[in-house]
Amino acid sequence: MLERPEPNARIQYGALPYRWNLEGDLQILLITSRTRRRWIVPKGWPMKGREPWETVEIEARQEAGVAGVISKRSVGSFHYDKILDEDDRVLLCEVTIFPLLVKRSHKTWREKEQRETRWLSGAQAAALAADAGLRNIIVAFAASYPDSRA
User: Fold this and answer.
1) Would you say residue 135 lies in a domain?
2) Which of 89, 108, 120, 144 is the one with CA 20 to 30 A from 26?
3) What share of the chain in percent tops pLDDT 90?
4) Which helix (H) or strand (E) holds 132?
5) Beta partners for 149?
6) Where are the alpha helices (DSSP H) in 35-94?
7) 87 vs 135 pLDDT, higher one
8) Tally of CA atoms within 13 A in the half-sphere of 119 that contains its CB
9) Count of structural domains, the chain
10) Where are the beta strands (DSSP E) in the chain?
11) pLDDT (tens digit, 9 = 90+) per residue, 7-41?
12) Average pLDDT of 118-146?
């Protein structure tokens, strides 16, 4: 069950793409935002007629070029201030995160030329993530895999 949002916060859903490398270490995929080049995860607004995890699958494919097995269970949520491009207004957003076990990385995807992608260890991803709440989710997620080098 999803937590109730903070008053006045706009809801978004995000993916936490992950995989294991050939050495068996957990890796997490971060992408850059299009305008400010901050390190984030694929995320987007709710889509009418779709469950949150369905939205996440679409956003991960469009923004990061990845597909796989999405969890229907959230691993947490965080808040961030979204700066609207058109007039620099700030919008409080609450992002609920769903893990996505990546099974396929596409060679081309919709936003490939607009974003950078980077596979990182849990510790590296947490250090690079732009938002404190996202960092906390990454740390907790990586810690749930004790054999990984979080």
Assistant:
1) yes
2) 108
3) 71
4) helix 132-143
5) none
6) 52-64
7) 135
8) 12
9) 1
10) 10-20, 26-32, 39-40, 43-44, 66-70, 76-83, 90-105, 117-120
11) 678 999 999 999 999 998 999 999 999 888 999 99
12) 93
